[in-house]
Amino acid sequence: MSFITLHSTKLRHNYKVLNQVFAQNKIEWAIVAKLLCGNEKFLQILLNLSDKEICDSRLSNLKTIKKLSPETQTIYIKPPAKRLAKSIVEFADVSFNTEIATLEALSEEAVKQNKIHRVVLMVEMGELREGIMALNLMQFYDEVLALPNIEVVGLGTNLNCLNGILPDEKKLYKLNRFKEIIEENSGEKIPYISGGSSVTIPLIFKNEIPFGINHFRVGETLFFGTNVYEDSLITGMYQDVFTLTAEIIEMQQKPNIPSGTAGTNLTGETPTFSEQERGKSSLRAIVDVGLLDIDHKDISAMIPGIEIIGASSDMLILDLGENSENLEVGDTIDFSMNYMAVLRAMNSDYVDKKVDGEMIPLLNTANEYLCLN
User: Do 212 and 191 sit in the same domain of this protein?
Assistant: First the structure.
C-alpha cells in the first residue's frame, strides 16, 4: 500500500520560522488544518505545535479537533450552511459569515446552547468569492449587533483562492478603514482584522502590512514553505514536509510507443507519441498508486532521472531512465508533492498515513531570510 509521510520535525521548523515572523510584527495567527482532512494522527502533530487556534472548512474536522483538544479555539472559515447552525455553534467557537439569515440561525442556536458564538464578518475586496459588499457593510453590522448571543470579533477577507487576486497594501488599508468607520459609528470595538493568509506573508517582509491587520490564517506556507504571492519558495523553510511513497509492482523493458488502434483512455484522452520514439524502448516501472489517490501532474519522483509517463486508476507508470539506484520489484520510490497532491492523497482511504520524527538539519532562520530580502 502506498503511504504519505508527514515529517514532523520539518513541520516544527517551519512553524517556528513563521511564529518568529508573526511575533516580531505583533500579529496573531491560526493554523489552517483543512489539508489534513481530519486525520487524527496528523492533527495531533499540529496540536503539539500550537493548541491555541485551529481553522478548518469542514465541520467534521472541527469536531475531531474538539475531541482531541477541547480547549483549542476552533474557527470555521467558510460561510456556514444554515442547516448546520446547531453543529456550528457546538463545534466552532468562531465562524466566518456573510449572510444575515445564517447569522440569525446561529444566534437562535447560541441562545439554545447558552453560548456566545463569535463571528468574523468577511468583506468582499475584489476576489469575488465570499464577502459582504462594502456598501452594505455598515447596515449589515448593525443588524448583526442586534442578534442575541452573537459577538463580532473581527473583519476578514479572502483573496487569491478563486480569481487569483493578490492582496496589497491599499486593499488591506481599506479593510482597516472599514473597521475604523464601524467602530466610530457604533461605539463598539472590533478586536481583529483577519486580513492575512499564506499569500499575504510576503507583504510582511516588504513592510507593506498596514497597522491594524493583526490576524493571519496560514496553511500552505506552513506545510510547503511557499511564497504564494510570487509562486516561489521561502529561503529557510522546508518544502518537503510531506512525501508520498509507492512500491514497485512491475519493472520491465518495454517499447516507448504502444501498438494497435488507439481510442480514448479512462480520462477521455488519446495520447500522442513522437515517431522518433518508434523502435526504442525504456526500463519502465509500475507503482501502486493511481488516479484514485493522486493527480500524477502534481508529484515528482525524488530520484533524479525518473520520469512519470502516465497513470491509470490504481497504477502510476514510470520511465526509470538509467535506473541509477538499481531499483528492483519490491523497492519503493519517494515523490515530492504540491498542495493539491497532498489534499487528494489525504482524502484517499487507499493511501496510508505515517508520521516521521527523525532529526533534521536547521535551516536559515526567519531573521536571516528577512536580511536577504
Answer: yes
